[in-house]
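[stage:ingest] chain + small molecule (3-methyl-2-oxobutanoic acid)
[stage:ingest] validated
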Amino acid sequence: MSENICTTSNQSENIANNRIIFFDSTLRDGEQIPGAAMTLTEKIKIAQQLTKMGVDVIEAGFAGSSPTDWMAIRLISEQCASEKTKICSLSRCHEKDIQASITALAPAIQKNAARIHVFVATSEKHMKTKLGKTKEEVLNMIRQGVGLAKKYVADIEFSAEDAFNSDRDFLAKCIKTAIQYGATTINLPDTVGEAAHFQYYEFIKDIIDRVQAPQHIVFSVHCHNDKGLATSNSLMGLMAGARQVECCMNGLGERAGNAALEEIAMAIQSSPNVYPFEFQLDTTKITETAHLVSALTGIKISPCKAVVGQNAFSHASGVHQDGVLKGWAQGIQGIYGAINPKSVGAQENIVITRHSGIRAVMYMMEKIGVPVSSVEATAILERIKCSGKKIISPELLVDMKQAGPIKARHIGKHVCIPIGPKMIRICAESQFSKINS
Ligand code: KIV
Ligand code: ZN
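[stage:predict] done
[stage:export] tokens:
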């Protein structure tokens, strides 16, 4: 696929440069998730962490939408804007929004580290139903919005909302207009999370081909996760020639969220032959950033969430644990895993459950300072399998060792299930199970 990357004459140099710009929208699109609205202090803490992690552009909010957003953008501009990190404010093509962005971004403008992100819907459905505007009126809004923002800030991003569902000829006209009036980044969102990955690839490639933009123009992707495809679609957009990716930590965002920053970064970093891109992010900060965002937004991370979920690098089944422990003994990480946990500041770990094996029990007992023989580990494992507990803590393991092998016992009504050479009797009422050897 990489050999087929789109290379229009104007954009070819840009595309040959494989440096990806990470545009983080945790504080804007991410904050739009119900219940995630943050205080000023919380927003600043997240911005500081994003800066530490090395994102290129922080979309700090939508200055015209609330005094809290305005103030957050102002303070983040003061504290985080630098040569390495630009601060961005979202604006509709309305004078009031753009003025609010300009005043909020003032400290970043002074440091030449500000971006105004101007957007308007370009799909037939959105123009008619939401805006009540004709195509010509929307083109005029672009001229006025982008033109006004450009008077104050050099770095202007234009987004065509619902771009994926827009008429391509009209979309190309909107983009050319935005570029003519000073936009330097062109964002092509799949606002409603509709596209299949190959459709989004074709869409981005087609638009880049149609627009024939000058080399300094950067195309950007922004994908929503309604069908669980946001990360994959974003990567396809980059393969098609976009060089900015818009994303949020932990995949936060409207409805089912935006593409997750950590997933895109790690897909690229762990498969350089597939995704031949470079970026300035320090991925070892990903885990601490994910936890901070979760703590401050109050939005819990699913245990199975790729890269940052609690179980992303945990091994609970006996077969996997056996492989992982044999790997560790030979100094090899990641026998079961596509990403090196250290590269995101996490650790691979063994969790003891009723699916675990003897080797894992012995490893864990050794780790907690109570080494056991394989015979003792077998007895502990029998107790684990009969305990009904979902996860076995170190304290419980020690108790189980002290309790010794299970003795056969009858408790009320029970069913017998043969497991290997043993019979397990499960009492349906108390949900206790006992082994009858
Ligand atoms: O999803 C979207 O289209 C947006 C735009 C404002 C960029 O969030
Ligand atoms: Zn969005």
